[in-house]
Design brief:
This protein is 34% helix and 27% strand. The protein is α+β, with helices and mostly antiparallel strands and 250 residues long.
Length: 250
């Protein structure tokens, strides 16, 4: 059993919200996307990804048999289909080159599956600690991994917003998959860079642990991002796992 909250905001500096999100709690699915592209193209890319994925899952539910491999194959097929559609649309839009990040959480019993393309992030809050689950597909993160720059330098690097992997950017895309058990009291936070570029991990952790419910936590996180600067669109989904016989206890 879980409770969840969500909120999306244009921010203080942008005219259009190119973020999109979708929640399907009955299917255990939560989606976040951050569009990339001039004018309204990013908005088209992110919303197309959300619409396509929601329709696919409704029409072809996640297989209940076959274990983790079946789940992985299912979402690989889904993401390939969505990527092809967005990529096709991108060839006919002006300016060309629209794409979108994609972050997905799928919950089955006591297991969480996180799927990521781009630089939207998932965090896990457990035992009052916060850990980043996903890895950013960005130019500066590649530099950090190679030891060329430090993480502190990456935060102010002029190319820090350059993503290296996105839905629709190329004919094929390779998502990252993460799978881990969830326990009573765990919180999974999903967000676009409009949140984590403005709000520290410690602020996120404190807000998620002190707010009475996830709806209030998401609203407060968005308010915090806007109070700091609100330089980008901000989208947040948070899921807290409650005591239930199907969940492990830590």
């Amino acid at each position: 059993m879980f409770e969840f909250g969500f909120k999306s905001d244009t921010g203080r500096r942008r005219e259009i919200n190119q973020d999109s999100f979708f929640v399907m709690p009955e299917a255990g699915v939560f989606l976040v996307a951050d569009g990339v592209g001039g004018h309204c193209s990013g908005e088209v890319a992110s919303r197309t990804a959300m619409t396509d994925m929601a329709a696919f899952i409704r029409e072809n539910p996640v297989p209940e048999e076959g274990g983790d491999d079946a789940v992985t194959d299912y979402f690989l097929s889904l993401i390939s289909s969505v990527n092809s559609h967005v990529h096709e649309l991108a060839q006919g839009t002006e300016p060309r080159g629209m794409a979108t990040t994609l972050l997905m959480l799928y919950i089955r019993n006591d297991t969480a599956y996180v799927i990521n393309v781009g630089d939207s992030r998932a965090y896990l809050i457990r035992n009052k600690n916060i850990v980043k689950v996903t890895e950013d597909h960005t130019f500066v993160n590649d530099l950090v991994k190679k030891g060329i720059i430090t993480e502190d330098q990456a935060r102010s690097h002029p190319d820090r917003n350059m993503i290296t992997r996105a839905i629709g950017a190329d004919e094929t895309v390779k998502p990252d998959f993460y799978m881990f058990p969830v326990y009573s009291g765990d919180i999974i936070l999903m967000c676009t860079d409009g949140l984590y570029n403005e709000v520290s991990e410690e602020e996120m952790r404190r807000t998620l642990l002190t707010c009475e419910n996830m709806r209030d936590a998401c609203s407060r996180l968005v308010d915090d991002a806007n109070r700091h600067a609100g330089n980008d669109n901000i989208t947040v989904i948070s899921v807290r796992f409650l005591s239930d016989s199907s969940l492990r206890t830590s």
